[in-house]
Specification:
The chain is built from ten helices and eight strands. By secondary structure, the chain is of the alpha/beta class. α4 runs parallel beside α5. 48% of the residues are buried. The chain binds zinc ion.
């Protein structure tokens, strides 16, 4: 059975890296979408476009290592985290930050064109309050990331503040404006608003807590599951652990909350469509 966690971080500097992947695998996990963390976490300053590019290359090497040294098949998502942009804008000025992050995002697109990454992310806007001009610039960069993804026919994973129906509708408007395919924009850390997401053309990646997934499946199976595992030894329990997606999936299948068809849709068909990949065991 294929089981995919759609938003998983690894961090050899601050976390347990391959050990986390092996825990996922031992619990029954088979495929991972591994999302870029931050230049700082990877040991780069995060001040110039080149720092982000080096951090993305570093990220690709981590994914390669997972594929070489474990039984899990991993795919990379690369980008610039909205908090990195915020930090840069506050410290070096808005125009400078926009210029450097734009260059870095174009590099992320290049890696998608080359088939080294399956998407751009996590990009979007900060989940905390920021000055108005940083907020607006973040939205511009989010739309630009969607344009880049549209051109490269790759996915984009969005990080945002907590979401409700109204915010899904706002995002739906940006998607229409850009003209990107409705299943290429993934809302990471999504609440279980499966129907609304489908209506506005967003693909929800839902945090795999019992409550969330129970609610999501009542609305349909057009979603993916994620832990947002952060792999940071200093913040244990800050998010769900690496075993959560396989455990929850098996539990729900056993209890009859998921059908076999649901599992196939959530873990195989949906990610294949979003990322344009073929998943096999
Ligand atoms: Zn994340």
């Amino acid at each position: 059975m294929i089981i995919l966690d759609n938003h998983f971080h690894v961090d050899p500097n601050n976390g347990i890296f391959l050990e986390a992947v092996k825990q996922f695998q031992r619990a029954g996990g088979t495929h991972l979408i591994v999302v870029y963390k931050s230049a700082h976490d990877y040991g780069f300053p995060g001040i110039k476009a080149e720092d982000f590019m080096k951090a993305m290359d570093f990220h690709l090497r981590l994914v390669e290592k997972i594929n070489k040294e474990t039984k899990v098949k991993a795919y990379a998502i690369v980008g610039v985290h909205p908090a990195e942009f915020d930090y840069l804008a506050r410290n070096k000025g808005l125009e400078y930050a926009k210029k450097e992050v734009t260059k870095a995002l174009e590099y992320a697109q290049k890696l998608c064109f080359e088939g080294k990454a399956v998407g751009i992310g996590e990009v979007g806007r900060p989940h905390y309050e920021v000055p108005r001009e940083i907020w607006e610039a973040s939205i511009e960069l989010m739309k630009y990331s969607m344009e880049l993804a549209k051109e490269a026919d790759c996915a984009v994973q969005l990080h945002t503040e907590s979401f409700d129906e109204e915010k899904f509708r706002e995002l739906g408007n940006y998607i229409k404006e850009v003209g990107i395919k409705p299943y290429k924009v993934v809302k990471h850390f999504s609440p279980p608003l499966v129907k609304v997401a489908e209506e506005v053309g967003v693909f929800p990646s839902i945090i795999a807590s019992r409550k969330n997934i129970e609610e999501a499946i009542k609305q349909g199976n057009r979603f993916m599951m994620e832990t947002d595992y952060i792999d940071d030894k200093k913040r244990p329990g800050a998010v769900l652990g690496p075993k959560t997606v396989p455990r929850r999936t098996k539990e729900f299948l056993q209890k009859g909350i998921f059908t076999e068809e649901d599992v196939y849709k959530i873990h195989v068909e949906n990610p294949e469509k979003v990322y344009g990949i073929t998943l096999t065991l």
